Amino acid sequence: MIGGTKYAGEMKKSIFGAMNFIVPNRDVLPMHCSANVGADGVTALFFGLSGTGKTTLSADPARRLIGDDEHGWSPTGIFNFEGGCYAKCVNLTEEFEPQIFRAIRFGSVLENVILNDEREPDYFDISLTENTRAAYPVDFIDNAVIPGIGGHPKNVMFLAADAFGVLPPISRLTPEQAMYHFLSGYTAKLAGTELGVKDPSPEFSACFGAPFLPLAPRFYAEMLGKRLRQHQSACWLVNTGWSGGKFGVGKRMSLKITRALVNAALDGRLDKVEFATEPAFGLSIPLSCPDVPAEILNPRNAWADKGAYDRTAADLAARFEANFEKFDASEAIRAAGPKVK
């Protein structure tokens, strides 16, 4: 029981912390991720910290939503912990995020959202904070899966809002790379997500949820690795952050482009294209993707100043390596990290 709080995020994460302690003993992997299922009945997972796009990308009109933030992976499949959604609604429009926009109706709760003179929500007013939120029952989403359960996932997405503009828009991970990036849990702290953050800065949060993990990160990583191998799930790293330059120089990846990349991975179209290895992180990137300009797929090519890219990539790689020193990981997993020295 939680009392005296005015922040729904505090309530949900307190329960999530308890679940992270309880359910592993029942052979269930607790996960800070969203989940949905396609028309083919196959489940997909989306890991990521706040502001990386878990809720937005999982609320896809072409797929059915299992849940937007907290799930368990049991021997029989995926299930939702919450029964509700907690969506960021800064700059929310029906055109770009129709399911979330339509879910905000009588019975929803808005946090930090400014009302205009007609007492209607103004999602573009960030005078209080960019961290505006909407909480609503999951069945307010069209085509939500009730009850919130699904099969073993065929695809697992790691979302990172890379403020450095170094990571590719999408890359296919080896099992060792999947463990490396799961333990790293990289993204950027975005303005408005945390008090006092004005400019994005790099953040590493083990398993994409370090504050909520009462057990050692290696414990959860080993559980995930076991499930990925057992069910032959593909793992992808998706940059929902910047392209063509770091924050202030490049541009934020458009939601349209990210959706096209994710959908191509989920429906198997990326399995039919040629891949190459980019040099900075050793990541396998597609050379083409339907509905996506080929020039942005390799992050270095998207930068006008190639020397600036190389220096920025080396700086980010050094941050990854310094962060990873604290983990007790195998040499194979350590070797799956950045290649820039």
Q: Can you describe this structure in just a few lines?
A:
By secondary structure, this protein is an alpha+beta fold. The protein is about 25% helix and about 25% strand.
SSE pattern, N- to C-terminal: HEEHEEEEHEEEEEEEHEEHEEEHEEHHH
Provide the helix percentage.
25-40%
What's the shape? globular
Flag low-confidence runs: none
Care to describe what's here?
Helix content is 26%, strand content 24%. It is an alpha+beta fold. It folds into 2 domains: 8-82 and 147-334, Phosphoenolpyruvate Carboxykinase, domain 3; 85-140, Phosphoenolpyruvate Carboxykinase, domain 2. Strands 1, 2, 3, 4, 5, 11, 12, 13 and 16 form a 9-stranded mixed sheet that branches. A hairpin with a 5-residue loop joins strand 1 and strand 2 (43-47). It is globular. 45% of the residues are buried. The mean pLDDT is 92.
Task: Describe how the helices and strands are arranged.
Elements: H1 8-22, E1 29-37, E2 43-47, H2 54-58, E3 64-67, E4 70-74, E5 77-80, E6 84-88, H3 98-103, E7 109-111, E8 114-115, E9 121-122, E10 133-137, E11 149-150, E12 153-160, E13 170-173, H4 175-184, E14 186-189, E15 201-204, H5 217-231, E16 234-239, E17 242-243, E18 251-252, H6 255-266, E19 275-277, E20 284-286, H7 299-302, H8 306-324, H9 331-334
Helix pairs in contact: 4-5
Task: Sum up the structure in keywords.
341 residues, alpha+beta, Phosphoenolpyruvate Carboxykinase, domain 3, Phosphoenolpyruvate Carboxykinase, domain 2, 2 domains, 9-stranded mixed sheet, 3-stranded antiparallel sheet, 9 helices, 20 strands, globular
